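Format notes (please read before filing issues)

Several people have asked whether sequences and structure tokens are stored in separate files. They are not. Every record keeps both together, in the order shown below: the sequence lines, then the token lines. Line labels are part of the format and must not be stripped during preprocessing.
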Amino acid sequence: MKKSNKFSPEVRERAVRMVQEQRGEYPSLWAAIESIAPKIGCVPQTLNEWVKRAEVDAGTREGVTTADAQRVKELEREVKELRRANEILKLASAFFAQAELDRRLNRPGFPRHF
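Then the structure lines:
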């Protein structure tokens, strides 16, 4: 089930920028997040996730970037489709091979040893 996006990307970016700009005014990152989150209308944990995601995407924190995660999803979807198509082709190949064998066995003049 997909999470609903209550906040637009612009609001998220603005909130993250506020945290980054005001980080030095607080004793810790979490204190800055706790102060700014109510101004945005979200819980601190949500804003913390946005900040971490922005840091990963910027390369200042280790992790899989949003773009890379999206690409992995696309590739997994493509692999699934290709596997399904491959299975269909295998079944069709077996069907037509059997039909060709039946056609050859049933042609006139074919010796039958039953």
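For reference, the curators noted about this record: The two ends are 60 Å apart (CA to CA). The chain has a mean pLDDT of 92.
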